[in-house]
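FORM 12-B: Structure-to-Sequence Request
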């Protein structure tokens, strides 16, 4: 859950924004002054600041200076009335992520907040992936987790696609990792050192789409107090991802088609043509051919985007990767939640996860693991720590083949528990969250004894 700090000396504005952002699923903190905000920043984990410009004492610009002085890279959105527009422009030059003029529509500030948080998360993920990729000399896409034939095929396709400059359409169910795959394409392309910019087409209000993609000129509409670059300009020399492209309004589809054909954009409110140089990736979880038949998506745009295609399979079709994914997510969640004492999963957990169909795919697995880490009261995650959806499970597949990695891991976790509780069967069972009969059965299966702990 992302956290937002609202800074405004008007209590009514603070409270109304707090209610709005909580409804959107954010954790919200409030400060009535810049000084109070600085105190909160030293005590809380904050992902984004939304601050008024004009306040008694420390102004929004002063708060921005303080944030930048500390070296923290969290985005800051400035709220400003028309009387302080010049100050807002100056704040943008100092590094504010965005500004918004009062009065504003709630959907507009929600959009700007989503955009800022997504941009920060994308920058962090791309930086992490770039570091991981730099450590591997064989270009084997270490950010793509899994050793199944399905993932091997995806990696083989990536090796062919990444070095081209052609558009790619990434398809697959929700939660299969389309956004991650787009970042992997970018980081393994000649454009890897240039920006990667993404926009989720479902989250942009229709009247803001053109400005979001192509930018706008100063004075193009009410509140356009300065010229703004769109995503195509921001991604100059790099890559732009149009996520959930099936939700792009028809009015914008025709303009996007023109951009892809001519490699130029026109900002809203301007007749000047601006050349662009960015590779375009698109992702969708809907059947675009069916959308074409329904008249919801342009056929000519589809073929402009569908030059190359990668389809990500649902997790239920490559269950053998659940082990590797779970172990990776465990390391991530353990670090983010400061729970280094979590040693791993109990022997029954992997079987339960292996039998589950994961309608939310890899994203659901990640959320399940993070929740389990948060709930675990012992060093080993048990089935009781799993969310109810995974705990209930679903009908297991007709054939379940345990991977060698799963067997090795299960043997390792049992031996580690025995080392922690030598000659104490009850404590081992409690640690692993299983009964004595199950423990004896697994020890026999892996030829483990209390005396042999190596």
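FORM 12-B RESPONSE
SEQUENCE OUT:
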């Amino acid at each position: 859950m992302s956290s937002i700090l609202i800074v405004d000396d008007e209590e009514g504005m603070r409270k109304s924004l707090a209610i709005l952002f909580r409804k959107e699923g954010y954790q919200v903190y409030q400060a009535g002054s810049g000084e109070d905000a600085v105190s909160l920043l030293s005590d809380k984990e904050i992902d984004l600041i939304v601050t008024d410009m004009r306040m008694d004492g420390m102004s929004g610009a002063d708060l921005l200076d303080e944030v930048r002085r500390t070296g923290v890279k969290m985005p800051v959105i400035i709220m400003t009335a028309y009387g302080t527009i010049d100050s807002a422009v100056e704040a943008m030059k100092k590094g504010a992520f965005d500004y918004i003029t009062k009065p504003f529509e709630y959907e507009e500030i929600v959009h700007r907040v989503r955009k800022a948080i997504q941009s920060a998360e994308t920058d962090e993920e791309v930086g992490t992936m770039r570091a991981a990729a730099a450590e591997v000399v064989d270009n084997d896409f270490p950010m793509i987790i899994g050793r199944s034939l399905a993932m091997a095929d995806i990696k083989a396709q990536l090796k062919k696609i990444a070095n081209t400059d052609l558009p790619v359409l990434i398809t697959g169910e929700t939660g299969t990792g389309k956004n991650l795959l787009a970042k992997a394409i970018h980081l393994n392309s000649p454009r890897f050192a240039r920006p990667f910019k993404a926009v989720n087409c479902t989250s942009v209000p229709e009247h803001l789409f053109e400005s979001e993609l192509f930018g706008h000129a100063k004075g193009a509409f009410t509140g356009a107090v300065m010229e703004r670059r769109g995503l195509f300009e921001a991604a100059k020399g790099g890559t732009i991802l149009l996520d959930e492209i099936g939700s792009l309004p028809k009015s914008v589809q025709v303009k996007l088609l023109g951009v892809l054909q001519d490699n130029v954009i026109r900002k809203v409110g301007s007749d000047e043509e601006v050349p662009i140089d960015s590779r375009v990736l698109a992702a969708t979880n809907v059947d675009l051919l069916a959308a074409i038949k329904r008249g919801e998506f342009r056929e000519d745009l589809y073929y402009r985007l569908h030059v190359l295609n990668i389809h990500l399979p649902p997790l239920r079709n490559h269950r053998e990767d659940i082990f590797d994914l779970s172990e990776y997510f465990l390391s991530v969640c353990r670090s983010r939640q400061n729970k280094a004492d979590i040693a791993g999963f109990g022997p029954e957990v992997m079987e339960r996860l292996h039998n589950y169909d994961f309608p939310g795919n890899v994203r659901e697995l990640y959320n399940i693991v993070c929740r389990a880490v948060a709930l675990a009261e012992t060093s080993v995650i048990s089935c009781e720590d799993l969310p109810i959806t995974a705990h209930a499970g679903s009908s297991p597949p007709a054939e379940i083949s345990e991977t060698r990695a799963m067997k090795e891991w299960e043997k390792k976790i049992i031996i580690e528990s025995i080392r922690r509780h030598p000659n104490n069967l009850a404590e081992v069972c409690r640690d692993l969250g299983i009964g004595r009969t199950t423990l004896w059965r697994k020890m026999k299966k892996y030829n483990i004894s209390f005396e042999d702990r190596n």
